[in-house]
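I am writing to request your help with a piece of structural work I have in hand. The matter concerns a single protein, recorded as an amino acid sequence and a row of C-alpha cells. Could you please explain, in whatever detail you think fit, how the C-alpha cells follow from the sequence? Thank you for your consideration; the sequence and its C-alpha cells are set out here:
>
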Amino acid sequence: MRIVSYNSRGLRLGNGAGDRARRIVVDKLLEDVDILCLQETMLPKQNLDRLNSFHCNFFGAGESTTDLSSGIIQGRIPGGVAILWHKDYDPFISVVRLNVDWCIAVKIVMDEKVFMILNIYMPYESHQNEDEYLAKLGFLSSFISQCEFNCVFIVGDMNADISDTRSTFGQHLIQFCVNNNLVLTSKERLPADSHTYVSEAWHSTSWLDHCICTEDAHECISRVEILYSLATTDHIPVSLVVNCESLPVLLQHQSPSHTEKLTWAKVSVEDIRKYYLLSDCSLRSVSVHKETLQCRDVNCEHMEHRLHLCTLYQNIVDSLIIASEFLCQKGATKFKPLPGWSEHAYALHAESRAAYKVWAAAGKPKSGSILESKKAANVKFKNAVRYIKRNEQTMRANSLANKLKNNDVSEFWKELKRSCISKQLLPASINGVSGDKNIVEAWRNHFSRIFNCVNSERFNLGNINYNHGMIVRADEVRLAIEKMSLNKACGPDQLSAEHMKYASCRAQVLLSLCFTGFLKHGILPDHMLSVLLVPIVKEKTGKISCIDNYRPIAMASVLSKVFEHILLERLQNFITTTENQFGFKGKLSTDLCIYALKETVSKYMRHNTSVFMCFLDASKAFDRVNHQKLFIKLQNRGVPSYLVRILHFWYSHQLMQVKWGTEVSEPFSVSNGVRQGGILSPVLFNLYLDELSVTLNASKTGCLVGDRLVNHLIYADDLVLMSPYSAGLQQLLRACAKYGEQFDILFNPKKSVVMIAATKGDLKLNFPSFNLTNQVLEVVSKVKYLGHILRSDLCDDEDIKRQCGKLYMQANTLARNFGMCSDPVKVSLFRSFCTPLYTAHLWCNYSKVVMKKLQVAYQDAFRILMKLPRWTSASHMFVVSNIPTFHALLRLFMYKFICRLSLSANAVVRALPSLTYSDTRYSSVLFKHWNNCLYGL
C-alpha cells in the first residue's frame, strides 16, 4: 500500500498558475497512490462532499476550519485536511472523526490486520503558536494512548524543521516522539539533508513534512521517499510504502459462555446479608481434626496431619464459593443495562413481556385487540430503547452527575472506571509463534527461564523450637482482611477479597486455626501456592508481538495475601533497613527521595564543588533474588526459625502458570525471585539489598550532610550513587559490582549512566571515565529518575516541559471520554487528574518563560475540558469552579511538602533541613524559593 502526504495549499478549481500547478501534482499523485493525505485543502464545510467526486477512482473525507453559514468570510479559507482513498480499499476503510479541524483519521481493517492513519496539519512555527502546538501534541498523545490498535501512522505537514537545531517546534516534535515511544520514521529512513519545503520568497529549504509511527507500524514500512520530481510548488510530497503482510494480527479473546462471573460492586445489601448467613451455615459443616490442631510437635512430619490441614483449607475455600453461588451470573446470559434503562425502559419492558404472555396464552391471534395491545406495548418499548441509545452519552453523564450531587463518591469512581475499560486485543503471534496453545507454551518457557536463572544451593534449616508467635488469633485474621483492597481480580481459586470481608466471622476463626497449623507444621497447601501470570503490554506503541515488550501480572490466592499480611506483622521488627532506602516504607515517597538527591547535590554546587552521580540499572532485580541467600539473611537478622521455615516452604514449592487469552499453561516451579505484587515481596527485596547499602555507608566516601554520609539513595531497585570525587564514585561502583556478583544482582552497564553536576570552573575539565564490570559507562547531561527529569546543572526546565505535555494529554483524554458530562463532573475530574503536578514543589531553578508555558497549559487544560474559548478569563473560571489557580496550587504543594519534611522520621530527610546537622536550610535555593512564594521573604 502506497501512502502519500502532500500540502496542496488549496484544492480550489481556479485558473491561476499556482492552482493549476498544485492540481497537476495532485492529479499526478492520484495515478499511482492508494491513500493520499492532503493538508491545507482550504475547503469550506459546505464543499467537503466534493472530495468524493474529485477523482473517479477515489473516495474522500475531510475536515474544514470554516463554515460559510456562520457569516461573511474575508480572505482565503485557512487550513483543512482531507484523506482520499482508492475505491478498491473502500470496503476496508472507515473514517474516524476526532472532532477537530486539523486532524482526520481512517481505520483500515484487512484480514484481521488493523491499522490507523492520521493526517494532521500543525500551526506554523512562531512564538505565538507554541502553546497551540504543544496542545495539539498533547491531543495526539492522548489519542495514541487510548487507541486500541498498536499500528498507527501519523503523516502530514507538522511545521517542525528537524534539520535545524534552532527550531523550537522541531525539538518539541522530537521530544514528543521520545515521550510516547514513537519512531520519527522520516528522520530514521531519510538522509539528514532532506527537505520538503522550499520558500518561494527566500528560496531556503526546510524539513517540515514528516511521518511518525509506532514501532510495529515503522517495521512494516518498506520504503520512504521525498518526491523531489514533483517539487513544482513550495511543499514537496512525501511517500511511504507499507507492507500490509507484515502488520501484526490482533485477536479479541472472548470469555467462555459457561464461565460464571461475580461482580460484588453490583451486589445489594440484602444479598450480602444472605451471603453472610449462607457462609455461616456452610462453614458450620467444616470438620476440624482436633489431634492435628492440638499437635505441639513443631517438627512433626505426620502425613495425616498435613493432609488434614490441606483439607481444612480447601473446605473453607469451597464453603465460601458455594455460599456465593447464588450471586453469580452466567457470562453468556448476563444483560448489561444501558444508562437510563431503569427510568425509561424498565417498566415498558415489563409491560411488553406481560402483553406478549397474554397474546401467547390466547393462542397468538393474528388480529384483534389482544394483538394490537401487544404491538402497542412493543412499539413503546422499542422507542424507549432507541431513545436510550441515541442519548447514551448524555444519560451516562447525567448518571455520573447525580452520583456526585448525592455525594456518592465511591459509586461515582466505580462507574467512571467501568466506562474507561476497553476491549483487550491480543496479537496472533509472539516472537514468531502462533496459535494460543503454542503461544502460552512459549510464555511458560520464557518465564520459567527467568524464574530459574540463578544457581542456588539447597537451604537446610534443621529442627526448630516452639514459638508462641505460631499461634494466629482470629482478630489477626480480621485485621489482615481489613487491609485487603476490594474490587480486585480473583486468584486461581476464584476467591476475592469480598468473599472474606462479607463472610461469617466463623471464617476468621477457622482460618486462624488453619494458619496456626501451617506455622506449626511448616507447610502450605498447593492451591494456596498457585500463582497465575498474565502478560500485559509495557508499551502500546512498541512491538506488540515482541516477548520483551510484556511484563507479568501475578494473580495469587486471596487467602495467601491474608496469610502474608499476618507474616508481615511478625517480620517487621526484624527486617528494618538503612535510612538510604526510601522504597516501600510508610510516609516515604519518590518525591522525598528526589528532594534528598537534589538538595545534597545543590549543597555541594553552592560550595563550588562538583558532584559525580551514577544511576544504576539492575536488570530484573526482583526476579533474580537468590532464595538460599535470602533465607540466610533472614536468619542473620534473628528472624524466628518457624517464619524462615514457612517462607522456605512457600518459595521452594511455589508453582506458576501463564494465562494467554483463554489458554492456561502447565505449571512450572520457581527457584529464584520474589513475586512482584506480593505483600511480602517489597520488604524481602529491601532486606536483600540492605547489605549493599550498609557496605556503601561503610566505604567512608561520598557526600556529607553535616556529619552524615549520604553517598547513595535507593528506591526499591532504583539506585543512585554520588560522590564529590571521581575516585570515590569509582570506589562505590566497585562495591556495587562486587555485591552484585556475590548476590546475583545483574547491574546493566548499558543502561546505567553517569551524570556530572559540574561547577562553572570544572565544565571544561576532562573527567576520567567510569567503569562497571569492566565496561565504560555513558556520561549524560540529563536523566529521568523516578519520573523526574534531572539535569546536570539542576535546571528544572526539562521537568516542567514534561509536566506541560502531560497536562495537555490528560485534558484531551478527559475531554474525549467525558465531554458530554455536566460541569460539576468535569470540575471533579479536573481536580483529580490535572491538579496533581508531580514534584512541582521541588522546582526552584527554572526560566520564567518555561514556567509561564506550564501556567498556560494548566489554564488551557481546564478550557479544553470545559469547552471554553482560549480567551476566557483564567481567574474568573477558576473562582467560579472553586479550582485553585496555578500559583495557588504551587503554594499548596510547597506548604504540604514542608509539613511532611518536618514530620518525617527518615534520618537523611531530617538532616537536610535540620539546623542541628547542617546549614542547608539557610543556604538552600529551594528553601529560599519556598519562603519567597509562601511568605514573600
Remarks:
- Residues 330-334 have pLDDT under 50 and may be disordered.
- The chain is about 40% helix and 15% strand.
